[in-house]
Amino acid sequence: xxxxxxxxxxxxxxxxxxxxxxxxxxxxxxxxxxxxxxxxxxxxxxxxxxxxxxxxxxxxxxxxxxxxxxxxxxxxxxxxxxxxxxxxxxxxxxxxxxxxxxxxxxxxxxxxxxxxxxxxxxxxxxxxxxxxxxxxxxxxxxxxxxxxxxxxxxxxxxxxxxxxxxxxxxxxxxxxxxxxxxxxxxxxxxxxxxxxxxxxxxxxxxxxxxxxxxxxxxxxxxxxxxxxxxxxxxxxxxxxxxxxxxxxxxxxxxxxxxxxxxxxxxxxxxxxxxxx
Length: 276
Fold this sequence. Notes:
Blueprint: H1 2-16, E1 23-25, H2 28-37, E2 43-47, H3 59-62, E3 67-68, H4 73-78, E4 83-87, H5 92-100, E5 105-108, H6 114-128, H7 131-152, E6 158-161, E7 168-170, H8 175-182, E8 185-187, H9 188-191, E9 197-199, H10 202-205, E10 212-216, H11 220-229, H12 237-240, E11 244-247, H13 249-252, H14 259-270
Parallel strand pairs: 1-2, 1-4, 2-3, 4-5, 6-8, 6-10, 10-11
Antiparallel strand pairs: 7-9
Helix pairs in contact: 6-7, 7-14
């Protein structure tokens, strides 16, 4: 009974301040921001991928909330939202449908660096009336990053690449570059000038010095087997010797502050002697 009364009081206070009370998140990235920053009673629904561990790092927390099952406007509107969270990779026609329905939206469009992530946390915190909570979350992130950087101080950076399932490579201006920057590694593709997710320059690849491959741990054995059969990746000593850093897909492709756990996991595998 006390919880019901408290929730009613909170809702009335939010309403009086003009702050959203029924928030729907349409993407995994906004799911992770919302779960870590917003009071649970204000979350109306999360994306349909929020409970999928291949994409989401908030699977357990997401079980508490409904899901927008098919990502359609009808499904979103079913939850009577007063704010919907999108990203610049959300379907444009879906965003327009929600706007035409008169529902306020918030679109996030920068993810590559940790500073981008901090900007997104502040942006959401302001929209929710949770600016102090946003700053607290950022300080927690900064503290974890600082501890990791102190541990990695003085290391000779390992040279890594991250081949995708389609044999593209993540270069500069990607979340993988950010992962390398914080885990004591050199992104060899970025060093070679590749930007974004680029086709593998097969001839150049043969001349690169690569210490480790960085791969998603989903279907790990099959991925390494496939790369060993590839005419270019298969020639790399790192591939032949199985020198691989395995990272959960949800962290390897993370667009939120949750990527910090990916920094830590990558550093632990590249420099195990520092974490004993």
